[in-house]
Amino acid sequence: MSEITVRPMMPEDWTAVSKIYLEGIATEHATFQTNCPPYTAWDASHTRECRLVVLDDGVVAGWAALHRVDPRWCYRGVAEVSIYVGEKFRGKGLGYHLLTALCREAEQAGYWTLQSTVLQDNAPSRGLHLKCGFRVVGRRERIARDCHGRWLDTYLMERRCTADEPTGYKKL
Fold it and tell me: What is the rounded CA–CA span in Å between residue 101 and residue 63?
């Protein structure tokens, strides 16, 4: 049985993280993105906290990170989830370990709502999010075209903080 570990993502993980991201892009079910940005651009677009990798026997097998939904102060506790598991590691429960840890860290950091946009053809991702306490709050029909010109729907999934106030929440 392999040893599963979740730890904070480090800049030196970028080679493995970007490879996993490219594998997700190649499925055409994980994102509308068609290429992986350079680390500096990716780093600038994601929160500093709540960046995790999951290791399978010491190998980076997946990653998760948060992106602020809106820069306004009133939405400071709302973030969008990115989660990817490497092709050869899928179906082993690593996504559950990773997303569970991300949700726990997000609450400790003061986030009260996590959301994910899941493409219509990504049933495994929808199932994972449901298993981790997310719910479908909407379906956006024909919201974007894929690289083949086909219209696609997305599901907006949301998870609320389990406590009345997240641990890291600071009142003004």
Answer: 11
DSSP for 100-125, please give it.
Answer: HHHHHHHHHTT--EEEEEEETT-HHH
The residues near 114 (Cβ < 8 Å, ≥ 6 apart) are: 66, 78, 79, 80, 81, 102, 103, 106, 134, 158, 159
Strand duo 59-68 + 52-56: pairing: antiparallel
71 CB neighbour count, 10 Å cutoff:
7
The CATH code belonging to domain 4-160 is 3.40.630.30
- Digit-coded pLDDT (tens) for 89-110: 999 999 999 999 999 999 999 9
Domain boundaries, the chain: 4-160
Amino acid at 159: R
**CA-to-CA distance for 79 and 60, rounded, in angstroms?**
24
21-35 confidence digits (pLDDT tens): 999 888 777 777 778
pTM for the model stands at 0.91
